[in-house]
Amino acid sequence: MSIKAFLSQSQYIQVRMEVSSWQEIIEQAAKPLIEGGFVTAEYPKAVISNTMEYGAYYVFDEGIAIPHARPECGVINNCFSMVTLAAPMSINGSEPVDIIVMFGGVDKDSHITDGIASIVGLLEQEDTLSQIRRATTIDEILELL
Question: Which part of the chain is the PTS EIIA type-2 domain (predicted)?
Fold first, then answer.
């Protein structure tokens, strides 16, 4: 499933969130995926634990974070969520981010193919990223994807 197709079910997009910590970013990005039955409550804990151990390896220079963990860390079905932040924030010492796309893949292949390929396609569109950052509603973001 493409990121656009999944996110068109708009409950997986959260716009201009205000957060107080990088851990809260991870928890908020995972919340609709847990509620939708796509990942277990252990999944964001695994992402936070991996981040503390290995650093924010999923942060890109463009101010985008793609937090994820291995399939066995609680992925039930392939999924995506998107969070835009009201103000950029560093994740465990990383460059500040303001667009977060969390994903979970049920196996190694879907983890790579469906998740990263869809997100990388989005990263390559600077104009779209700028517009996503300025968006104030879920509908605006859906139109841009």
Answer: 6-145
